[in-house]
């Protein structure tokens, strides 16, 4: 039997929940929110560790706090927190610490002044692409080589060797390696500071309790969306069928992309929605010019903090070779330098892959929230490999042990002692005692298929945003991080896009 709804929202991430909340506030009383997973939040997921500390496996920060509407709401709530209650966020921005395996700390080095070179590369990239709009995009890797080739006479050997590696911290913003990253899209302005959320579960709870619980149906996939005259027919995988006046599709860009493909050509069709008629030409075209990143996390929980809290952001650099400097010095052209540059194997598990093959970001929670834990951020393809190891904590520890030990020596303590699986250590041993490891699985999870939208060379994010915000048609609408310009890729962007679609639908429902 077909049931009628005013609006059906597909996906209960922050975009879908915000849309539902706003529709209810606008007086719309007959909605359904269909969610494929057994939980709310989508790419916001708070979990508990061995000592009951909470961690966010997906988003963890409010970004761009000068223009982040969600943060503004949270700021008001934070003001009302009693002193005894924990705050809803903490400001944890710090000067990053850069650690190289051989050379140790490289930040604030008075000879190399790598922070200045990093800023110069940022400016160089801006001048390269924005003085003339015709300049062809290339990878972030290649633009760095171009800078080094053209400016080598102004740089010392150490600056050439290490600035190339320092810049790669941006891989941990985009969730992909420098060879996949669009040079044009790599650098972007931050609209204010970042605030570490403690934790996102409270935000999900707050928004989802602002509309009727009966609206939400979990563990259910939307399979088909069909436009029939003035109505939209939505079919679920449990056989139920609904008609509605409007639908808001908030599934991630990576899942929506499956709708542009023949189901016979896809190994796992979970999450795929069949659109009848198919997604419009503009949307199909936009998928050719936009990609999806693969940020992942590994959480290392210790029994206590025995290291010096020097900073909340520790970047470990990928290996660099002295031969790299010679290549830069001797290259006859930029092209020649690109060809000569050592190629990092881009397969998921090169035979001899090590933790020093990629730059990594370690967030020291001991510094910001007093929790003795390091949260490590990693990019694709490394995240694909580590997430595929899944729950084999011992293997994950062995893989990252060298980099963890290096960090600990930088923070004035001894090597990590593995006390996972209930093992104990002689009481005279010093060094941080590792109790537990947790790993994300965003790349494997069929309802995320990675982390968030990002640009490969020659992509154009604007085409996707325009196509998505215009909708499939006047009644089949889209929301989510990939559908909006301000806050693209981020939680506040998703949240705003949910608000945007709720406003559009409310206006049209009341004006009919
Ligand atoms: C590791 C990681 C770190 C991040 N860090 C930050 C950060 O610090 N700050 C920040 O601002 N952003 C961060 N982000 C990005 C942020 O998490 C996302 O932009 C945001 O949560 C996306 O929300 P959304 O509602 O658009 O999509 P989602 O949260 O993905 O919601 C979409 C929902 O649709 C559901 N769904 C999929 N297919 C179907 C179907 N067929 N039927 C029904 N339901 C379906 C999914 O299960 C999901 O719940 C991070 C993301 C990741 C993965």
Automatic annotation (TrEMBL):
Alphabetized InterPro entries for the sequence: Amino_oxidase, FAD/NAD-bd_sf, Flavin_monoamine_oxidase
Pfam families in the cross-refs: Amino_oxidase
Species this protein is from: Naumovozyma dairenensis (strain ATCC 10597 / BCRC 20456 / CBS 421 / NBRC 0211 / NRRL Y-12639)
GO molecular function: polyamine oxidase activity
Superkingdom in the source lineage: Eukaryota
Amine oxidase domain mapped to chain residues: 14-505
Taxonomy of the source species: Eukaryota, Fungi, Dikarya, Ascomycota, Saccharomycotina
Protein's name according to its UniProt entry: Amine oxidase domain-containing protein
UniProt-listed GO biological process terms: pantothenate biosynthetic process; spermine catabolic process
């Amino acid at each position: 039997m077909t049931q009628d709804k005013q609006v059906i929202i597909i996906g209960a991430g922050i975009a879908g929940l915000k849309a539902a909340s706003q529709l209810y506030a606008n007086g719309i009383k007959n909605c359904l929110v269909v969610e494929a997973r057994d939980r709310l939040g989508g790419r916001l997921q708070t979990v508990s560790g061995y000592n009951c500390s909470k961690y966010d496996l997906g988003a963890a920060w409010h970004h761009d706090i000068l223009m982040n509407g969600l943060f503004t709401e949270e700021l008001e709530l934070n003001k009302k927190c009693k002193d005894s209650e924990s705050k809803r966020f903490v400001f944890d921005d710090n000067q990053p610490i850069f650690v190289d395996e051989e050379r140790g700390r490289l930040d604030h080095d008075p000879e190399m002044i790598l922070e200045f070179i990093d800023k110069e590369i940022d400016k160089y990239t801006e001048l390269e692409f924005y003085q003339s709009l015709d300049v062809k995009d290339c990878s972030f890797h290649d633009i760095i080589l171009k800078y080094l080739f053209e400016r080598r006479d102004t740089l010392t050997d150490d600056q050439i060797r290490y600035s190339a590696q320092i810049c790669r911290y941006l891989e941990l913003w985009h969730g992909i390696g420098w060879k996949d990253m669009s040079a044009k899209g790599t650098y972007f302005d931050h609209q204010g500071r970042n605030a570490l959320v403690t934790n996102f579960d409270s935000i999900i709870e707050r928004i989802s309790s602002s509309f009727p619980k009966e609206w939400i149906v979990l563990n259910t996939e939307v399979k088909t969306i069909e436009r029939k005259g003035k109505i939209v027919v939505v079919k679920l995988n449990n056989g139920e069928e609904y008609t509605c006046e409007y639908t808001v599709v908030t599934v991630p860009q990576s899942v929506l992309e499956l709708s542009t493909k023949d189901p016979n050509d896809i190994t796992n069709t979970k999450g795929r929605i069949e659109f009848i008629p198919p997604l419009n030409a503009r949307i199909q075209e936009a998928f050719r010019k936009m990609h999806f990143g693969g940020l992942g996390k590994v959480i290392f929980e210790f029994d206590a903090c025995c290291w010096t809290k020097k900073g909340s952001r520790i970047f470990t650099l990928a290996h660099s070779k002295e031969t790299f400097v010679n290549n830069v010095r001797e290259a006859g052209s930029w092209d020649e330098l690109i060809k000569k540059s050592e190629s990092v194997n881009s397969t998921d598990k090169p035979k001899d892959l090590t933790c020093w093959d990629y730059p990594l970001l370690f967030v020291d929670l001991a510094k910001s929230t007093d929790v003795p834990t390091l949260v490590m951020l990693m990019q694709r393809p490394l995240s694909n490999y580590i997430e595929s190891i899944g729950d084999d904590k011992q293997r994950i520890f062995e893989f990252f042990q060298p980099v963890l030990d290096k960090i600990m020596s930088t923070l004035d303590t001894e090597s990590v002692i593995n006390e996972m699986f209930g093992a104990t250590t002689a009481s005279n041993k010093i060094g941080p005692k590792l109790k537990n490891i947790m790993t994300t699985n965003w790349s494997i999870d069929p309802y995320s298929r990675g982390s968030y939208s990002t640009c490969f060379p020659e992509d154009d994010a604007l085409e996707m945003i325009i196509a998505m915000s215009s909708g499939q048609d006047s009644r089949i609408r889209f929301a989510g991080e990939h559908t909006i310009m301000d806050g693209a890729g981020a939680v506040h962007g998703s949240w705003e896009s949910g608000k945007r679609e709720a406003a559009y639908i409310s206006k049209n429902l009341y004006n009919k």
